[in-house]
Amino acid sequence: MRLPADSLGYALQASARLVAEVLDGANLTDGFERMQQAHPDWAEGTRGAVRDLAWSTLREYGRGDAVLRHLLHAPPPSFVRALLLVAVHRLGQRPEQAHTVVDQAVQAVAAEMPGMRGMVNAVLRNALRQKASWADWIGVDEAARHAHPRWWLERLRRSHPERWEAVLDAGNQHPPMALRVNRRRMTVDEALAMLQQAGVPGHRLENDAVLLERPVAVARLPGHGEGLLSVQDAGAQWAARLLDARDGERVLDACAAPGGKSAHLLERADVDLLALELDPQRAERIGRNLARLGLAAQVRVADCRDLHAWWDGRPFDRILADVPCSASGVARRHPDIKWLRRDEDIGRFAAQQAEILDALWQTLAPDGTMLYVTCSVFDEENRLQIARFRARHGDAEQLPIDNRPDCQLFPNAEHDGFYFALLRKSR
Ligand SMILES: C[S@@+](CC[C@H](N)C(=O)[O-])C[C@H]1O[C@@H](n2cnc3c(N)ncnc32)[C@H](O)[C@@H]1O
């Protein structure tokens, strides 16, 4: 049986498939991309509903899991468990629609696994009867309360003893949507007026980023196709300002895909840019992004650690090292990472980042600067990484950022979490 694509049952079914895939180890964004390709006829409303349910269920997964632990006596098939998680999330979000949610969840399971219909109905009705106890079930478990895995809590508490809870709270919110104005094509004031006229109001942030009042589909952004604007988090837009590349300089973006920061560097100055990327498919996105904006760079697929493979021996004036990391500062955009990553992964990222830093340092000109960037909030990838790098490289001087040794941005209502350290090579 097929459910109407504009029904809640359909959105519950599709989002439960995505959640089930993630809990079995798959990447959420890739899964959603594949699902959209398989349904080119989806209306914007259907796409939005499926996305919203899957993302917000996974953002809160720890809480839903704590509720289900009290309601299930044996583990159900992964689709059914995922459907129950999505439905429990929706029941919490929209208590006034409780009976519709239960009815539509039953329709959703009937369409996929008809034999489980009675079980889903019974569990959800029981969940409703015991709704007053949910807060206690969640409250006794710190990891459930914060909707993050326990190891993440511990690591964050060690890294930021004063603000770890605020960081977790921000990580559970819907992320803001910010735009970067292509300053070669228009001013921020012109962009704000154009957006206002299109019914997409926003305001200016630091570094000339624009924060939208409400997130919108990219298709609704005026001037996006023509390269006047790009979607880029306001925190990510700090990188180009901090690196401060000037006309005529030779610049390396060592980990470049999908090319957001490369594009920003090129919008700000006429630099000779080499963009490296390890993953060939992701590298293709750099060229597409730059073409939309009317910008150009040399794009190469290479492992930036393997200097023999890509470096011609000519040193760079500036290097952007936007390294692969845990992405713990952007978990609200990619809530699957909270549940897919393991504590041991952080040490592996740190080792890889150290190799990248050591390799790139050799390609930096004397007096040149390298900006190290992560979208992590864990010290091991950030402050400690840079302290260890400086201990290995006596010719590395750390330049202050806004009067501090480095800069840790925490996720908040304006931007995601990022870390920046600026290093100069002494002569
Ligand atoms: C944080 S993302 C970069 C985001 C990009 N700078 C932007 O602003 O659009 C890190 C990228 O580095 C790539 N990468 C990972 N290891 C790499 C390596 N050893 N050499 C080059 N690229 C690498 C990943 O595939 C990923 O695309």
TrEMBL record:
InterPro entries: MeTrfase_RsmB-F_NOP2_cat, MeTrfase_RsmB-F_NOP2_dom, NusB-like_sf, NusB_RsmB_TIM44, RCMT, rRNA_ssu_MeTfrase_B, RsmB-like_ferredoxin, RsmB/NOL1/NOP2-like_CS. Keywords: Cytoplasm, Methyltransferase, RNA-binding, rRNA processing, S-adenosyl-L-methionine, Transferase. It is an enzyme of class 2 (transferase). Pfam families: Methyltr_RsmB-F, NusB, RsmF-B_ferredox. One of its GO terms (biological process) is methylation. Residues 167-426 form the SAM-dependent MTase RsmB/NOP-type domain. The keyword Cytoplasm applies. S-adenosyl-L-methionine binds at C255, A256, A257, P258, G259, G260, K261, E277, D303, D322. This is 16S rRNA (cytosine(967)-C(5))-methyltransferase. The lineage of its organism: Bacteria, Pseudomonadati, Pseudomonadota, Betaproteobacteria, Rhodocyclales. The gene is rsmB.
